[in-house]
Structures are given as C-alpha cells and as structure tokens.
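Run log // design_07
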C-alpha cells in the first residue's frame, strides 16, 4: 500500500492506494467519529463490492446503512440527491454518521455534496472503484450535481476524511470505463509532468492490459500531482484550474450530447485535443505536440474527434463554464507538453476555427 497526503492543515487526509484495501476496514474505522456509516453506491457496484465492504466494517464493529442509487451520469441530479437524504433520515443518521462513497465519480460527487449539506455538514470518505475516480474525482474535495445547462454547476468544496483506492476493483471495470480513466491520467502528463507523459507513451499498452504494477504507478503518480496542486490551491483560485485542461470543451460535449451519452473521460479526451489544437492555432505549440497527444489518447482507446455540435452551440455551452470571469471564457492551454497555463486571451475567430475544423488523425 502506498499512502500520500493531501496537505490542508487540520483538514489534511491520506490517500491509500493498493490491492485488497476493501478488506482493510480499519483504514475506514480509524477515521470515524462514530461507529455508524451510510454506504452510498449504485446498482452496478453494489453487487460487486457492497457485501464485501459491509463484512469488513462489521468485523470492526461498524454498523453500515446501504444506499443504492441508479447508475449513470444522467442521475447526477437533485432527484437522486434527495434519495440519499431520504435514506439518511429514514435510518436516523446523525451529523456524526460518515457517508462512504463506494463507486465512481458520479457516486463520489453525489455523496460528497450530500455530506456537505446534510445537517449542515456530515463527514464523508471516498472508496473509488473506477480508474477515473481513483486518479481524479475522489481527490480534492470537489462535489457537485449537474444542471441541464451545465455540468457540476451546483456543488461545494468539501474534503473527505480519507481516500481508499483498492486497485483490485479495476479488474471488473469495463474496457470503456478504463479508457475514460486513462484520459485523466494522460492529462497530468500534459499539464505538469513531461517525464510522466513520456512514460505513458512507452507504457500505455501495459495500462490498457491492466498490468497491476503499471496501474499502481500511474495512479500514484497522478494522485501525487493532484494532491500537490490541491494543497497549493484548494478552491481553484489559480493553479488548480490547470486540472481542467480539456474540460471546458469536454463539459460542453457532455451537456450538448446529453449527460451520459459520452463518458466524462471520453469527452475530456476530445476536449484535450481541441485545447491542444487551439494552443497550436495560437502559435504556442507545434504540430508534433498535437500529434503526440492524439496518438497517446487514441492508443488508450479514447476518441480524438469532438462531436459536431456546431460552433454556436459550443460557444453557448462553454458560456456556462465555471471558469468564466466577467463574461469571458478562460482556457487552459499548452506552452509545451508538460506545461499548461490559464489564458483569457483567446479570440472568437481562433475558437471558431478549431471548433469547425476538419477531423484529426492520430
């Protein structure tokens, strides 16, 4: 087991990464304010891991209330959030009852937001079971639900007590979900870690084949980068915005197609290609950097061509992006592979050219 720390003073917490951690319920029990938890999961994950986690917690003397939600991005909304509140109230869960998110990014976001507002704040803990959640959404305290006009528009910054990433859960992950997680892994190399990007180019097939050592290394390297950035900029006032590379375009794709049509990581992959092409259009990087980005994403099984929503529709959807300041979009661009920055100096003509351009080829 590897353990990293998200350094936020008295709200610091560990990220445990390793195989067989679902059985190590002492990692959860040792963080609890009381011996009662509510495990929030979904209809896909529950049959695989809920009973195992409950048995492990029971052995630690922890009572667990199961809350099973429908699966999918389409359910990341107020109605599903209220299902969590109904179950918590029906089971007389107190302010000290810890909510445990057992699942992917949707479950993590829903559970974290529910915890942030239930009785004005209940503790919660992340047990991510997808690659995307293990390397990205479970770390950093971003919680939210979607609105029809935009992704993650209603939420809160609310940090977990701990993140427990059992790499064994990736064995049951569908290939499409694994690829979606690899998009976020690749993002870390693109924005901040050129040596890691080089490693990914040489080892991407090992990750696609789910070789345990390669996956463990990629997860640890990704979480280390994110933990460092979150510690420096918890509420995304500057540096943390770099983690949204490709997301302005990607969130527009998700909203434009209807939440759930494309997985988050798929939309981010196509969004990162658009961001790389925009960086090239502005004279920041060359064609080789764009080609390397496309080849790596394609090798990971990800889409590199964005759907044709129309330039005006893209611009409308991106107008709801959370990084908008004073009515101006802010874009994460590349100066080179491994170095990203935030820019407001992007003209409509350059955007329209990139959004309306021909398909790319890896």
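design_07 sequence
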């Amino acid at each position: 087991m590897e353990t990293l720390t998200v350094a936020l003073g008295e709200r610091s917490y560990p990220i445990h990464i390793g195989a067989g951690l679902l059985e190590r319920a002492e990692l959860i029990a040792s963080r609890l304010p009381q011996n009662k938890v509510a495990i929030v999961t979904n209809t896909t994950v529950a049959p695989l891991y809920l009973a195992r986690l409950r048995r492990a917690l029971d052995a630690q003397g922890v009572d667990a209330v199961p809350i099973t939600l429908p699966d999918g991005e389409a359910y990341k909304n107020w109605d599903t959030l209220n299902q969590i509140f109904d179950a918590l109230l029906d089971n007389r869960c107190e302010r000290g009852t810890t909510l445990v998110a057992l699942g992917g990014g949707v479950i993590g976001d829903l559970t974290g937001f529910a915890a942030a507002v239930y009785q004005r704040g209940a503790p919660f803990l992340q047990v991510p079971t997808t690659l995307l959640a293990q390397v990205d959404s479970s770390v950093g305290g971003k919680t939210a639900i979607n609105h029809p006009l935009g992704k993650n528009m209603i939420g809160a910054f609310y940090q977990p007590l701990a993140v427990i990433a059992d790499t064994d859960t990736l064995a049951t992950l569908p290939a499409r979900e694994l690829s979606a997680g690899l998009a976020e892994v690749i993002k870390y190399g693109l924005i901040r870690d050129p040596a890691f990007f080089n490693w990914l180019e040489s080892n991407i097939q090992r990750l696609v084949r789910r070789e345990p050592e390669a996956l463990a290394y990629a997860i640890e390297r990704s979480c280390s980068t994110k933990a460092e950035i979150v510690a420096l900029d918890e509420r995304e006032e500057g540096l943390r915005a770099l983690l949204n590379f490709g997301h302005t375009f990607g969130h527009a794709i998700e909203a434009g197609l209807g939440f759930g049509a494309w997985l988050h990581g798929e939309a981010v992959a196509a969004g990162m290609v658009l961001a790389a092409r925009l960086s090239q259009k502005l004279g920041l990087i060359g064609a080789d950097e764009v080609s390397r980005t496309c080849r790596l994403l394609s090798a990971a099984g990800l889409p590199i061509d964005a759907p044709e929503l129309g330039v005006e529709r893209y611009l409308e959807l991106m107008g709801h992006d959370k990084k908008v300041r004073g009515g101006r979009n802010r874009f994460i661009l590349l100066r080179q592979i491994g170095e990203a920055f935030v820019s407001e100096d992007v003209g409509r003509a350059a955007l329209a050219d990139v959004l309306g351009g021909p398909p790319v080829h890896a």
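DSSP finds 13 helices and eleven strands in the chain.
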